[in-house]
Here is the input.
Amino acid sequence: MAVVMQAASRDALAAADARLDDYVDKAKPKDLERLGDELFAVMRLVHDEPTLRRHLADPSVPQTARRALVDSVLKDKVNKQTLDFVAELVSARWSRPVDLVEALEVLARRATLGVAEKDGSLDDVEDELFRFGRILAGNPELRALLADPAAEPDDRVRLLTELLADKVSPVTLRLLTNTAQTPRGRHLDVASEELAELAALRRDRYVAHVTAPVALTSEQENRLVELLTRLYGRPISLQIELEPELLGGLVVRVGGELMDGSVLSRLAAARRRLPS
Here is the structure.
C-alpha cells in the first residue's frame, strides 16, 4: 500500500512530478528507460540504508550538504539526468524519511511508464497490470511465493520473469520485477492494481475531456487538437461530452487542469461581481 504523505512531502513530490512530466514529454524512450531503472536502483539503496535515508531527508542538514552526499554516493554510478533528479529530491523538505523512498519509487514508475507513453502501448500496459493482479488475487499459492520475505529478491524476480516473459510488454515486466525485488511490505496483487491505476492516470495526460453545448464539427475538433497539442507539448486526443446547459463555449480538462470557457461559467462570474 502506498505511503500516506503529509503536506510537506506531498508538495515536494508534486514539484518533482511536474519536473518529470516536462522531461517525459521531451525525452526519448531509451532515456526514460534508463532514468526509470536508475531511480529504482537509487530507491533500493535508500530503502536498504537507514542512515543514508535519514541524512538525505533530514531538514536540519543544509541542502548543500545533502546534495553533496548524493553526489559522493551516486557520481559515476548513474547518468547526469538521474543525478539531477535525485539532487532536487533531497533538496526538498520531507515530512518523514520514508517519504523520500516513496517519492523515488513513484518517479521511477512514472519514468518507466513514460516509455509506454512514447510507444503508444500504455493501454496494453494498464490492461496487463490489472489482469495480472486479478490472476494473483485468485491464486494464493503463487501470491505467497512472490511475496515470500524469506526468499532472495533475485529468486522472486527470476520466478516472475519465467512466468511473464513473452506474455507481457517489457514495460509491464520491468514495473512488476522492480516491485517484486523490493516489495516494501506489499503483496504483488495489490501493487499490480496500484500500477494499473497509475498507468490510467498517465494515459489521462494524453486525453482532453471536452464538454460542449453542441457537437463540434470535424474542423473544430482538429483545430482544438492542434491547439492543445501545442499547448501541452504532447499528442492530445479528445473525449467529447454534450451538455446543452453550458449555452456556449467549452469546458476542457486535461489531467488535473481545468479550462472553463463556457458561457455558463462567465454568467456565474458576472453575477458574483454584481453588488448585492
